[in-house]
Amino acid sequence: MEFDPSAIEAKWQQKWEEAKIFETDLKKAKDPFYSLVMFPYPSGDKLHVGHWYNFAPADSAARFMRMKGKDVMTPMGFDAFGLPAENYAIKSGIHPDTSTRTNVQTMVKQLKRMGCMYDWSKMVNTSTPEYYRWTQWLFLQMYEHKIAYKKEAPVNFCPSCQTVLANEQAQDGTCDRCGTTVIQKNLNQWFWKISQFAQRLLDGLKDLAWPAKTKIMQENWIGRSEGINFQERVKDLNIEFEVYDSIPQTFLAQTFTVIAPDHPLVSKLVSGTSYEKPVMEFVERIRKKKLAAKFKIEEESEGIFTGRYVDNPFGTGDLPIWVCSYVLADYGTGIVNCSAHDERDFAFAKKYDIPLKIALLPQDPALAEKVKNFEVFYREPDGIIQVPEVALGMTWEQSRKRIIDYIEGKGYGQVRVHFRLRDWLISRQRYWGAPIPIVYDPEGKPHPVPEKHLPWLLPTDVAFKPTGKSPLTESKEFIERTEKLFGKGWTPEFDTMDTFVCSSYYYLRYLAEGDEKHLVDPTIEKRWMPVSMYIGGPEHACMHLIYARFVMMALKDFGFVSHEEPFKKLVHQGLITNKGAKMSKSKGNVVSPDSLVERHGSDAFRMYLMFMGPFTEGGDWSDTGIKGIDRFVKRIHAMFTSNVNKKVDQSQVLASLHRTIKKVTEDIEALRFNTAISALMELLNLLEQEGGVSSETAKTFTLLLAPLAPHLAEELWESLGGKGFVIEQRWPMFDPKLTKASTHIIAIQVNGKLRGEIEVDAGASKEDVLSKAKAHPNVQKFLTGEVKKEIYVAGKLVSLVV
RNA sequence: GCCAUGGUGGCGGAAUGGUAUACGCGCGCGACUCAAAAUCGCGUUCCCGCAAGGGAUUGAGGGUUCAAGUCCCUCCCAUGGCACCA
């Protein structure tokens, strides 16, 4: 029979759809398994190999879980708001809503051609009013619970995208979307208080089955640091302030104090003194420098003396106060006491000839060398100042607690915890996003749009020219609507929300099945959350994956959900590159899956992607290897449609079959698809050698194949006379007794080198095996002298030492 | 600089401390064919050898062990992440 993958795949996709076997009844499910992949952005570039590499193996894992008896639900949707559609509109004049709808349609068609078991009845599209009314509802909840707030602050601004960005989206000083260097601007913007959840976000990580790497990245991003806040006074001025110090071990070595240029205290320090002019000029110069681009580490730090001193409470002398370019106003208190122990402080002091001291005997010999000419504290017995119980030779960490206790005891300061995590800046000066549901009264005071007015519709009478102002300011309809509903002189908020807000809760909306009254039914949420397995790229570690956790925690606090964490298990698929480079339109090295699917079929294409190498490691694209899978698929088809000719298989075949069941089961469970496929290849090779197979074994093979090549497996299942769909069958069990072969090949080593092989019965005794091994002619050649040691590893090898 | 992961044939890669190089690609030879493609069979880590067999080999060097790709130490290289956070 001629083998035509396209025809087979079309046939089964239609049958699956007609039978609605992938539509999950959320209420009836007994043993829920929520399988989720990060939903795609509906771009004009359509589905690419990266999507396939993410979705197809995820589908194989989900199919496997279904055959294992779970009630599996795998939804699909579109993260449809965002810049590309808007930029496309600017170029082409086509409204983003139109292009997005077209792209969604195309991608749905492509996704259906993949043949994954998506439950399309639960699809979401974040750019539709039915969806974004919940994005707005979420904002209102955040506003009501005082997590959403507006403030003027220095923020990241992308000059190319003409919008502000969250810290997470400007991580290396460049825009996450376009790579342009971001600049700092002082703007009045909406923030969500994610920083309030910092400790919980940190604590929650430890119970998650996530890649260690991802957890570490979030930990670093949250950046917990414990230290001490010192209360200090400016000498000759009635000004008090706090200084944060995360290494209080060195407090006695501090010789100067630095303050951030944009700290409000700076002008007060120099006001009316001869230092005022140069210091304020310095501040202005640094401000301009930061405006041009985010500061780079390589840039040398600069500073200027303010003429003021800290009235040092520790009695180690007054510390001169410097304004210094490397100090951050929004971390700690924006003021730092410095010593020789910090590399940067050390370099700064050297540059400006500020005296240095060191505390304790440094553990680091290089530092000891560098500062050997400076005064050393804590040295016993001639130490100048001694902290009780801090002894010479103690390590940094050992002395830390005692010094902290000492400082707190003396009343110099209190223990404080600081986080690096900043509040999430959610406003964007762009069109294609969910409007922020806020209106301003004629005095400019913000008011939430009442829930009954949701969805607060995105106006359509807007031209898409980037002006640096929010495009919504152009909409007459938007302004008229606001005045009509709220009164003369009222204006709407013109900014839209970050698209990461839309994606921070979409996994809940899949479960809502279009419910217009509730975000999600609490009983269904309780049953189905957290997501059982979430698969997506690692690039979201400190963006989507942290926002989603935060939103879930907030929703729990508000009483809408019962779980704190959205994703119990997380897996990152690897990256598929082309000639070593990331695939991108600009590089022109994007591989389109469509023609490959056309030529080889969805089954072969997905199996090839899985066979390339370990799922989490990705790899470099090459289409030469797909031939091997093509052959494999054809050979399977030939074998099980025309060589099912035996009543019973030999014990050797049975043993191989059961070993294969074991291996494929364990491999798919651990997402090792590559070795699962190679195990099936080995079994097929054996069956071909045998010249045929029993119907029983053919059926079992088909079941094992079902998660990996779902269409082909259905076809074979049907032709083998199986009842129902193969995907609805139970996953085969292996019999441990049958996995054992009746004879073993034993390797014989002499002095660690392989010298021969013998075949023995499985039940052979150690003595029999050893004597047979020693009788092997080639082994005898090397048994020169007395055998000192004999090791027998049952069923595997004999090791002789002479 | 710091943290993490990795380094195995011509290539993708496989290997609970127990026969390194499974499986696949590619390549070589053969069968089928007028011929080619497809398909099938045999071979394929490297070196010596007609063969039997021997020697070498998992980034480099040491160590533990009857036995090390795997465990320990030192180093080299690659990839990813972090890096003015005091």
Q: Describe it for me?
A:
- The chain is α/β, with parallel strands linked by helices and 802 residues long.
- The strands form 10 sheets. Strands 8, 9, 10, 11, 12, 13 and 16 form a 7-stranded mixed β-sheet that branches. Strands 2-1-23-24 form a 4-stranded parallel β-sheet, with helices on one face. A 4-stranded antiparallel β-sheet has the order 6-5-7-17.
- Strand 23, helix 17 and strand 24 (570-572) form a beta-alpha-beta unit.
- The longest helix has 19 residues, at 49-67.
- The two termini are 61 Å apart.
- Mean pLDDT is 87; it is low at 361-389.
- The structure holds one RNA strand of 86 nucleotides.
Summarize the structure.
The protein has 802 residues and is α/β, with parallel strands linked by helices. It has 26 helices and 33 strands.
Distance between the termini: 61 Å
| SS elements, strand count | 33
The unreliable regions are 361-389
Mean pLDDT: 87
Range of strand content: 15-25%
- Characterize the overall form: globular
Number of helices: 26
Helix content: 25-40%
What is the rounded Rg? Answer: 34 Å
Secondary structural class: alpha/beta
Sheet with the most strands, sense and barrel status = 7 strands, mixed
Topology:
Layout: H1 5-19, E1 32-37, H2 49-67, E2 71-73, E3 77-78, H3 83-92, H4 96-114, E4 124-125, H5 129-144, E5 148-158, E6 163-165, E7 183-192, H6 198-204, H7 212-222, E8 225-234, E9 240-245, E10 256-259, H8 265-270, H9 276-292, E11 303-311, E12 319-324, E13 335-338, H10 343-351, E14 357-358, H11 365-370, E15 375-376, H12 396-410, E16 413-418, E17 424-425, E18 427-428, E19 438-440, E20 446-448, H13 476-486, E21 491-492, E22 496-497, H14 499-502, H15 506-512, H16 522-528, E23 533-536, H17 544-558, E24 570-572, E25 576-578, E26 581-582, H18 593-600, H19 602-611, E27 619-620, H20 626-642, E28 644-646, H21 651-669, H22 673-690, E29 693-694, H23 695-705, H24 710-719, E30 743-750, E31 753-761, H25 766-775, H26 777-782, E32 789-793, E33 797-801
Parallel strand pairs: 1-2, 1-23, 3-4, 10-12, 14-15, 23-24, 25-27, 28-29, 30-33
Antiparallel strand pairs: 5-6, 5-7, 7-17, 8-9, 8-11, 8-16, 10-13, 11-12, 18-22, 19-20, 19-21, 25-26, 30-31, 32-33
The structure holds one RNA strand of 86 nucleotides.
